[in-house]
TrEMBL record:
Residues annotated as domain CBS: 11-68, 85-138
Name this protein carries in UniProt: CBS domain-containing protein
Keyword Oxidoreductase on entry: no
Alphabetized UniProt keyword annotations: CBS domain
The keyword ATP-binding belongs to this UniProt entry's keyword annotation: no
Lineage: Bacteria, Pseudomonadati, Bacteroidota, Flavobacteriia, Flavobacteriales
Organism: Confluentibacter flavum
Domain of life of the source: Bacteria
InterPro entries: CBS_dom, CBS_dom_sf, Diverse_CBS-Domain
Length: 138
């Protein structure tokens, strides 16, 4: 069955990550540069949180003003990565099946799962990865 494939087959292994010491301006730059919507926050090789582009939008007032850049700078400088990131992150391991990952994302309010083996972040699988996988099966 196609759902029994491990997520290691489709996960992103080239991980774009942030640390606690990074700022939100850097985070926004990474989101835009790499055209991604989720960035793990790490301490060494271990995940300590997850930042989504939606998290930035929640604190940004840029859409309500004509001077977007200045407002973003003020808002981004008012918060740290640690204040904005999700801290209690649900992780899966690389042997988790695509079906299991799909079931988790279908029932939860987030769209990315960090893949962790032996406390080390080894990848990330997103709802987009899963959709692309299922499209290839059709």
């Amino acid at each position: 069955m196609i759902g029994n494939t491990p997520v290691s087959e489709i996960m992103s292994k080239n991980i774009i990550a942030l640390t606690r010491s990074d700022d939100l301006t850097r985070a926004e730059m990474l989101f835009k540069k790499h055209k991604i919507r989720h960035i793990p926050v790490v301490k060494g090789e271990s995940i300590i949180g997850m930042l989504s582009y939606a998290d930035l939008l929640k604190i940004s007032y840029a859409d309500t003003t004509n001077d977007e850049h200045d407002i973003e700078v003020v808002v981004y400088n008012s918060f740290t990565i640690e204040q904005v990131m999700t801290k209690d992150v649900l992780c899966i391991d690389s042997d988790t099946t695509i079906q299991e990952a799909t079931e988790i994302l279908a029932k939860r309010e987030f769209h990315a799962l960090p893949v962790v083996d032996e406390s080390i972040l080894v990848g990330i699988v997103t709802s987009t990865d899963l959709l692309n996988y299922f499209l290839k099966q059709l």
